[in-house]
Write a structure and sequence with these properties.
heterodimer, A: alpha/beta, Aspartate Aminotransferase, domain 2, 2 domains, 4-stranded antiparallel β-sheet, B: alpha+beta, Arc Repressor Mutant, subunit A, GMP Synthetase, Chain A, domain 3, 3 domains, 3-stranded antiparallel β-sheet, 3-stranded mixed β-sheet, 10 helices, elongated
Chain lengths: ~375, ~280
């Protein structure tokens, strides 16, 4: 978390404890901080503050967008999404399918991009709700969301995008990209975990997901998480200021890491579209070895990464994203994601590059798939 | 250190400093199990000494920390054993040697036991060094046979499909074989129950009326709402002893999957809440 965010939040645990929905003085005082945070969130994405709904996380935003617009659309609707979405989108889409709605999951090619002809064909089938992510959480691959949203609007569809990964990393502007709904989450902006936003464009037909309260203008019942909303507001402000660092400083660090690893370790591949990617993410497969084992060795060195291997998630299949991209099994289990931020330094990067070859050599010496 | 899994120090030690890594070139027994697609694979080789005991054992493993640790532990366990002793090593021995494994990682210990079994078979018969699937393949995603599932359930006293998946991976891919696994779990539970019934006392007897009431309650509370969600329904026709006669209504009537629903939903719930002896049948129309 950003220190500025923590500082902004602290008074709301101590002195400013009023419930913003209360009529008394304490409540009213708190409500104006929520409205200030709403303004910051709106500014970050080019929205009107009235279009911002605070939620408990990115997953809630995705669920609220998909279930809420499906309910508003009525029965027998069509849903279009991709095979590489976050489970927070795939889950609700598949649930709607179980309830008798039609679901189309678009595939991706090796770099992780969708086929526009396939999308066009899917859109031609009649009115639909479309949920396609802005940027992928495992590979950082950015979809041409402006083009996709324009196609969806032309076909008369309702467009939602999960921008959890993209927010604060690349410019996200709903004045330029005609999405109807957009989800993002606080912790990706160095705000705390447990706070999210759903942007709902004026005029979008949607029913509230959490009912039973008048909060958020009737669009999301439930007592507001005041300190977290305030923290998110500060984080949005910081993100707007720091975004240029992402494109310059962070992407340079990422490229240094990627190039360094490709050079120092044999049989390594980068997963994803290197030309259309978030500046902070790299997904690298170390062939013939397994991701969890890599992560444990990295962790021993104080390096945090994540993996698309089956073993890290407790499921038995490797990442659905990596598999959808047709990455062979020799590389899928050893896929490792490094996410950087403006808090990383060149020393951090060089430390990883320096230690990774030994880890790879050690694990490959154990692997029955490496011919010696 | 940050940990994804709650591994014991012994697991982490064997992962960080694996014992007996490599391949014995002129091995007496070789066992290979798993595959790249499965996400883990193990090649075990051993050499017998003049005394007939395992003088050396080496392994190569592709897999996660606990797969590496389990393989390392296996080689340490079997060194010095006669083949008769080694044949009796179960996956539980491997897990115990490591001070336990997380439930979802038990399949790593099962992989160790399988490799040992194949290596011993290779020594005894000179046959293939790879695992040959014997019997009916239940899980096609991970290539697990009925025999293997049954053995693992017995060795580890498993009672649920989820446990079987944790121990053998079966059912952890597309999930289509889960009803088959459930059938195997039930079959072995029945065997156990019969064995237990021979020694233990019968449970508290219910009167006929009490039983019918309990059946009606269970149908109302746990079965009908589930069927109604899919546009179906069910009516209780008769109860005679442990035999319960029902009739499907709505979407369930004539549904291809009705017999599955009968076993997995209706009978399972009545077993849970009324008596494990109950047999459900559909009324003949």
């Amino acid at each position: 978390m950003a220190p500025e965010v923590i500082e902004a939040m602290m008074p709301f645990f101590k002195d400013l404890w009023g419930n913003p929905s209360s009529m008394h003085y304490f409540g009213g005082q708190v409500a104006k901080y929520i409205e200030a945070a709403r303004q910051e969130a709106a500014t970050l994405i080019g929205a009107d503050p009235s279009e911002i709904v605070f939620t408990s996380c990115g997953t809630e935003s995705d669920n609220a967008a998909i279930f809420g617009s499906a309910e508003a659309a009525g029965s027998g609707i069509r849903i279009i999404t991709t095979r590489v979405e976050h489970p927070a989108v795939l889950g609700p889409c598949r649930r709607l399918k179980e309830h008798g709605h039609e679901l189309i999951e678009l595939g991706v090619n090796t770099p992780g991009q969708i086929d526009f002809d396939e999308l066009k064909q899917a859109l031609a089938g009649g009115p639909a709700i479309i949920s396609i992510m802005w940027a992928n959480n495992e590979t950082g691959v950015i979809f041409p969301i402006e083009k996709i949203a324009a196609m969806v609007k032309e076909a008369g569809g309702v467009m939602h995008t999960d921008a959890v990964q993209a927010i604060g990393k690349v410019p996200v502007d709903v004045r330029k990209v005609p999405v109807d709904m957009l989800s993002f989450s606080g912790h990706k902006l160095h705000a705390p975990k447990g706070i999210g936003v759903l942007y709902i464009r004026k005029g979008t037909k949607i029913k509230p997901f959490l009912v039973g309260g008048h909060q958020e203008n009737g669009r999301r019942g439930g007592t507001e998480n005041v300190p977290y909303i305030v923290g998110l507001g500060t984080a949005c402000q910081l993100a707007a200021t720091n975004m240029k660092d992402e494109a310059t400083v962070v992407s340079k660090l990422r490229d240094r890491l990627e190039d360094g690893l490709l050079k120092s370790c044999p049989d390594v591949r980068v997963n994803g579209d290197r030309d259309h990617r978030l500046p902070n993410t790299t997904n690298i497969s170390f062939q013939y070895i397994e991701g969890e084992a890599i992560l444990y060795h990295l962790s021993d060195l104080g390096i945090c990464a994540s993996s698309g291997s089956a073993c890290t998630s407790g499921s038995l299949e490797p990442s659905h994203v990596i598999r959808a991209m047709g990455v062979p099994f020799t590389a899928a289990h050893g896929s490792t994601r490094f996410s950087l931020s403006r808090y990383n330094t060149q020393e951090d990067i060089d430390y990883v590059i320096q230690h990774m070859p030994a880890i790879v050599t050690k694990l490959r010496a154990l692997s029955p798939f490496v011919k010696t | 250190m940050y940990q994804m899994w709650d591994y014991t120090d012994k697991v982490l030690d064997h992962f960080r400093n694996p014992r007996n890594v490599g391949v014995i070139p002129d091995a007496d027994g070789v066992g290979e199990v798993g595959s790249m697609a499965c996400g883990d694979a193990l090649k075990l080789t051993f050499k017998l000494g003049k005394d007939g005991r395992i003088a050396d054992a080496k392994f190569q493993t592709f897999g996660c920390a606990s797969a590496i640790a389990s393989s390392s532990a296996l080689t340490e366990i079997i060194k010095g054993m006669t083949l008769e002793q080694a044949e009796k090593v179960t996956n539980q021995h491997i897990a115990d040697y490591l001070g336990g494994l997380p439930e979802q990682k038990m399949h790593c210990s099962v992989m160790g036991r399988e490799a040992l079994e194949v290596a011993i078979a290779n020594y005894n018969t000179g046959d293939t060094t790879k695992k040959i699937l014997e019997g009916k393949v239940i899980c096609t995603c991970f290539g697990v046979t009925e025999e293997e599932i049954e053995r693992t359930i017995r060795d580890n006293n498993l009672t649920t499909v989820e446990q079987v998946t944790n121990y053998t991976k079966a059912g952890g891919g597309c999930g289509q074989c889960q009803p088959d696994i459930e059938r195997i779990v039930k079959k072995i539970q029945e065997e156990r129950k019969k064995a237990a019934a021979a020694t233990a006392q019968k449970p508290r007897a219910m009167t006929g009326m009490q039983k019918i009431k309990l059946i009606e309650e269970t149908i109302e509370r746990d079965i009908r709402p589930m069927l109604q969600r899919d546009g179906g329904d069910l009516e209780l026709i008769d109860v005679s002893g442990d035999k319960v006669i029902v009739s499907f209504r709505g979407m369930c009537a004539g549904c291809q999957a009705a017999h599955v629903t009968m076993k997995d939903v209706v009978e399972a719930k009545l077993h849970e809440f009324v008596s494990p002896e109950i047999v459900v049948e559909e009324a003949k129309s």
